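Reply to dn_fold:

You asked what the input looked like. This is it:
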Amino acid sequence: MSDLSNIARPYAHAIFELAEEQNNLAGWGTMVDLLASIARDESLGGVISDPHVSSQQLEELIISVGGDHLNDEAINLVKLLVKNSRVNALPEIASVYAEKRSEAERVVEATMTTATSIDEPEQKQFVDALEARLGRTVKLEFDVDDELLGGAVIRAGDWVVDGSVRAQLEQLVGAIGA
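and this is what came back:
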């Protein structure tokens, strides 16, 4: 994936700069996500890598699937990626673009995994606390994992807070065994 990351980064940066100039970060996010979904689609995977499919056929296919959701610049992006044999980098381009967009909009996407579901007022309290701590808007997704026993694990990028009962038990076992 590191090769794709190196390939994707310049494209994502260029798309981001264009989106900023146009004051259209959300619109470009939608288009890039759509293109990434098209590139990830299993039914198209064989077509994308098929040497018997011409560049023009591949362009037309991707553009037709994208339909009216793609503007002229996004269509040009498709043509450029097909010409440079970089269609397979679209999911990584979308990922890098999303990171840049979140950073620019000062938004942190995080996941909180708990042993049981928590109600909306509690969810709001967690979001408010994280926003105060991080100084950013937090989009917090909530998951349930009954193997946690209790507590919660919060992940936001590389930042992880593991307050689960399982983690506490592992620390206790480590301290006793040490």
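The radius of gyration is 21 Å.
Hope that clears it up.
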